[in-house]
Amino acid sequence: MRYYPIQLDVQGRRCLVVGGGGVGTRKVDTLLSCGARVTVVSLKVTDGLHRLSACGAIRLWERAYAASDLEGIFLVIGATDDEELNRRVSADAAALNILCNIADRPEKCNFILPAVVQRGDLVLTVSTSGKSPALAKKLRHELERQFGEEYAELLKLMGAIRKRLLTEAHAPEAHKPFFEKIVHSDILTWIRDGRMQEVNRLLAEILGEGWSAEDLLSKED
After folding, report:
1. The whole model's pTM is what?
2. Model pLDDT for residues 111-142, shown as the tens digit of each residue
3. What's the CA angle centered on 133, arms 26 and 113, to 5 degrees?
4. For domain 114-147, which CATH number applies: 1.10.10, 3.40.50, 3.30.420, 3.30.160?
5. What SS3 class is residue 26?
6. What is the DSSP string of 119-167?
7. Beta 115-119 vs 99-102: how paired, if at all?
8. How far apart are CA 183 and CA 189, in angstroms?
9. What sign results for the dihedral spanned by CA atoms 83, 85, 90, 95?
Protein backbone atom coordinates (compact mmCIF):
# COMPACT_ATOMS: atom_id res chain seq x y z
CA MET A 1 0.00 0.00 0.00
CA ARG A 2 1.29 3.44 -0.94
CA TYR A 3 -0.20 6.53 0.67
CA TYR A 4 -0.73 9.93 -0.91
CA PRO A 5 1.20 12.48 1.18
CA ILE A 6 -0.94 15.41 2.25
CA GLN A 7 -1.00 18.39 4.61
CA LEU A 8 -4.61 18.60 5.74
CA ASP A 9 -6.32 21.85 6.74
CA VAL A 10 -8.56 21.15 9.74
CA GLN A 11 -8.91 24.77 10.87
CA GLY A 12 -12.46 25.23 12.17
CA ARG A 13 -13.53 21.75 11.03
CA ARG A 14 -15.41 19.32 13.26
CA CYS A 15 -13.29 16.34 14.24
CA LEU A 16 -14.25 13.41 16.46
CA VAL A 17 -11.93 11.35 18.66
CA VAL A 18 -13.35 8.05 19.89
CA GLY A 19 -11.42 7.07 23.00
CA GLY A 20 -10.38 9.16 25.97
CA GLY A 21 -7.19 7.48 27.16
CA GLY A 22 -3.60 8.55 26.72
CA VAL A 23 -3.55 7.95 22.96
CA GLY A 24 -6.83 9.79 22.47
CA THR A 25 -5.56 12.71 24.54
CA ARG A 26 -2.46 13.04 22.34
CA LYS A 27 -4.63 12.98 19.21
CA VAL A 28 -6.84 15.71 20.69
CA ASP A 29 -3.83 17.88 21.52
CA THR A 30 -2.57 17.67 17.95
CA LEU A 31 -5.96 18.46 16.44
CA LEU A 32 -6.42 21.45 18.75
CA SER A 33 -2.97 22.78 17.85
CA CYS A 34 -4.12 22.79 14.22
CA GLY A 35 -7.33 24.70 14.98
CA ALA A 36 -9.84 21.85 14.78
CA ARG A 37 -13.18 21.85 16.62
CA VAL A 38 -12.83 18.63 18.62
CA THR A 39 -15.41 16.34 20.17
CA VAL A 40 -14.41 13.35 22.28
CA VAL A 41 -16.70 10.42 23.02
CA SER A 42 -15.60 7.83 25.58
CA LEU A 43 -16.83 6.09 28.70
CA LYS A 44 -13.50 6.83 30.40
CA VAL A 45 -11.40 9.97 29.90
CA THR A 46 -8.14 11.36 31.22
CA ASP A 47 -7.87 14.28 33.61
CA GLY A 48 -6.34 16.27 30.75
CA LEU A 49 -9.47 15.86 28.66
CA HIS A 50 -11.65 16.84 31.62
CA ARG A 51 -9.61 20.05 31.93
CA LEU A 52 -9.95 20.78 28.22
CA SER A 53 -13.69 20.24 28.45
CA ALA A 54 -14.01 22.44 31.56
CA CYS A 55 -12.35 25.37 29.79
CA GLY A 56 -14.45 24.89 26.65
CA ALA A 57 -11.58 23.77 24.41
CA ILE A 58 -13.37 20.54 23.46
CA ARG A 59 -16.82 18.99 23.57
CA LEU A 60 -16.81 15.88 25.75
CA TRP A 61 -19.41 13.11 25.70
CA GLU A 62 -18.79 10.58 28.50
CA ARG A 63 -20.77 7.73 27.05
CA ALA A 64 -20.50 4.91 24.52
CA TYR A 65 -19.88 5.72 20.86
CA ALA A 66 -22.86 5.74 18.48
CA ALA A 67 -22.81 5.88 14.67
CA SER A 68 -24.87 9.08 14.84
CA ASP A 69 -21.84 10.79 16.45
CA LEU A 70 -20.36 11.03 12.94
CA GLU A 71 -23.07 13.39 11.71
CA GLY A 72 -21.41 16.55 10.38
CA ILE A 73 -17.91 15.26 11.17
CA PHE A 74 -15.01 15.98 8.80
CA LEU A 75 -12.50 13.56 10.32
CA VAL A 76 -12.64 10.83 12.95
CA ILE A 77 -9.87 9.15 14.92
CA GLY A 78 -10.43 5.84 16.70
CA ALA A 79 -8.13 5.64 19.72
CA THR A 80 -9.47 2.79 21.82
CA ASP A 81 -8.12 -0.62 22.82
CA ASP A 82 -11.46 -2.22 21.84
CA GLU A 83 -10.89 -3.85 18.44
CA GLU A 84 -14.60 -4.37 17.78
CA LEU A 85 -15.33 -0.71 18.53
CA ASN A 86 -12.47 0.41 16.29
CA ARG A 87 -13.87 -1.72 13.45
CA ARG A 88 -17.31 -0.15 13.93
CA VAL A 89 -15.89 3.36 13.79
CA SER A 90 -13.95 2.50 10.63
CA ALA A 91 -16.98 0.91 8.94
CA ASP A 92 -19.31 3.77 9.92
CA ALA A 93 -16.84 6.35 8.60
CA ALA A 94 -16.39 4.45 5.34
CA ALA A 95 -20.16 4.36 4.80
CA LEU A 96 -20.25 8.16 5.11
CA ASN A 97 -17.04 8.85 3.17
CA ILE A 98 -15.45 10.45 6.25
CA LEU A 99 -11.71 10.63 6.76
CA CYS A 100 -10.82 7.99 9.35
CA ASN A 101 -7.70 6.97 11.23
CA ILE A 102 -7.59 4.08 13.68
CA ALA A 103 -4.54 4.28 15.92
CA ASP A 104 -1.97 1.56 15.10
CA ARG A 105 -4.35 -0.15 12.64
CA PRO A 106 -3.40 1.09 9.14
CA GLU A 107 -5.59 -1.53 7.47
CA LYS A 108 -8.65 0.13 9.09
CA CYS A 109 -7.71 3.65 7.96
CA ASN A 110 -8.16 5.70 4.82
CA PHE A 111 -5.28 7.90 6.00
CA ILE A 112 -2.39 7.34 8.39
CA LEU A 113 -0.53 9.75 10.64
CA PRO A 114 3.23 10.20 10.18
CA ALA A 115 5.78 10.86 12.88
CA VAL A 116 6.15 14.65 13.07
CA VAL A 117 8.93 17.10 13.84
CA GLN A 118 7.73 20.70 14.06
CA ARG A 119 9.85 23.82 14.21
CA GLY A 120 7.43 26.73 14.01
CA ASP A 121 5.82 26.57 10.57
CA LEU A 122 8.37 24.02 9.39
CA VAL A 123 6.81 20.56 9.54
CA LEU A 124 8.88 17.46 8.81
CA THR A 125 7.10 14.11 8.62
CA VAL A 126 8.29 10.52 8.51
CA SER A 127 6.16 7.63 7.32
CA THR A 128 6.96 3.95 7.01
CA SER A 129 3.54 3.35 5.38
CA GLY A 130 2.43 1.67 8.58
CA LYS A 131 5.18 -0.97 8.43
CA SER A 132 7.24 0.12 11.45
CA PRO A 133 6.19 2.85 13.91
CA ALA A 134 9.41 2.09 15.84
CA LEU A 135 11.57 3.02 12.85
CA ALA A 136 9.50 6.15 12.21
CA LYS A 137 10.07 7.16 15.85
CA LYS A 138 13.82 6.59 15.55
CA LEU A 139 14.00 8.73 12.41
CA ARG A 140 11.92 11.43 14.10
CA HIS A 141 14.44 11.62 16.95
CA GLU A 142 17.27 11.93 14.44
CA LEU A 143 15.48 14.79 12.67
CA GLU A 144 14.84 16.53 16.00
CA ARG A 145 18.60 16.58 16.63
CA GLN A 146 19.37 17.74 13.09
CA PHE A 147 16.79 20.52 12.79
CA GLY A 148 16.89 22.99 15.69
CA GLU A 149 14.76 26.01 16.53
CA GLU A 150 16.90 28.17 14.23
CA TYR A 151 14.93 26.68 11.33
CA ALA A 152 11.70 28.08 12.80
CA GLU A 153 13.27 31.54 13.05
CA LEU A 154 14.67 31.36 9.52
CA LEU A 155 11.31 30.33 8.09
CA LYS A 156 9.58 33.15 9.97
CA LEU A 157 12.14 35.60 8.57
CA MET A 158 11.79 34.24 5.03
CA GLY A 159 8.02 34.59 5.24
CA ALA A 160 8.35 38.20 6.37
CA ILE A 161 10.77 38.97 3.53
CA ARG A 162 8.44 37.35 0.99
CA LYS A 163 5.47 39.33 2.30
CA ARG A 164 7.34 42.63 1.99
CA LEU A 165 8.69 41.82 -1.47
CA LEU A 166 5.20 40.96 -2.71
CA THR A 167 4.09 44.48 -1.88
CA GLU A 168 6.67 45.85 -4.31
CA ALA A 169 6.09 46.36 -8.01
CA HIS A 170 8.44 43.81 -9.55
CA ALA A 171 7.32 40.32 -10.57
CA PRO A 172 7.38 37.51 -7.96
CA GLU A 173 9.75 35.48 -10.17
CA ALA A 174 12.36 38.16 -9.58
CA HIS A 175 12.44 37.20 -5.88
CA LYS A 176 13.85 33.72 -6.48
CA PRO A 177 17.55 34.74 -6.67
CA PHE A 178 17.19 36.65 -3.38
CA PHE A 179 15.82 33.63 -1.56
CA GLU A 180 18.39 31.29 -3.08
CA LYS A 181 21.25 33.49 -1.86
CA ILE A 182 19.79 33.74 1.62
CA VAL A 183 19.14 30.05 2.20
CA HIS A 184 22.54 29.04 0.79
CA SER A 185 24.39 31.44 3.10
CA ASP A 186 25.48 30.82 6.71
CA ILE A 187 22.32 32.45 8.02
CA LEU A 188 21.18 29.38 9.98
CA THR A 189 24.43 29.38 11.95
CA TRP A 190 24.15 33.11 12.60
CA ILE A 191 20.56 32.78 13.82
CA ARG A 192 21.45 29.83 16.03
CA ASP A 193 24.38 31.76 17.56
CA GLY A 194 22.44 35.01 17.92
CA ARG A 195 24.68 36.88 15.49
CA MET A 196 21.97 39.16 14.14
CA GLN A 197 24.45 41.77 12.91
CA GLU A 198 25.66 39.18 10.40
CA VAL A 199 22.07 38.44 9.40
CA ASN A 200 21.35 42.14 8.85
CA ARG A 201 24.56 42.57 6.87
CA LEU A 202 23.50 39.72 4.60
CA LEU A 203 20.01 41.18 4.09
CA ALA A 204 21.45 44.58 3.20
CA GLU A 205 23.91 42.96 0.79
CA ILE A 206 21.23 40.95 -1.02
CA LEU A 207 18.11 43.09 -0.67
CA GLY A 208 19.51 46.59 -0.21
CA GLU A 209 19.64 49.08 2.63
CA GLY A 210 16.72 49.37 5.00
CA TRP A 211 16.25 45.64 5.61
CA SER A 212 16.49 44.52 9.25
CA ALA A 213 15.67 41.09 10.67
CA GLU A 214 14.47 42.65 13.93
CA ASP A 215 12.11 44.98 12.08
CA LEU A 216 10.76 42.23 9.85
CA LEU A 217 10.21 39.79 12.70
CA SER A 218 8.57 42.38 14.94
CA LYS A 219 5.87 42.83 12.33
CA GLU A 220 5.21 39.08 12.31
CA ASP A 221 4.57 38.86 16.08
Report:
1. 0.80
2. 988 889 999 999 999 999 888 989 999 999 99
3. 50
4. 3.30.160
5. helix
6. ETTEEEEE--TTS-HHHHHHHHHHHHHHS-THHHHHHHHHHHHHHHHHT
7. unpaired
8. 11
9. positive
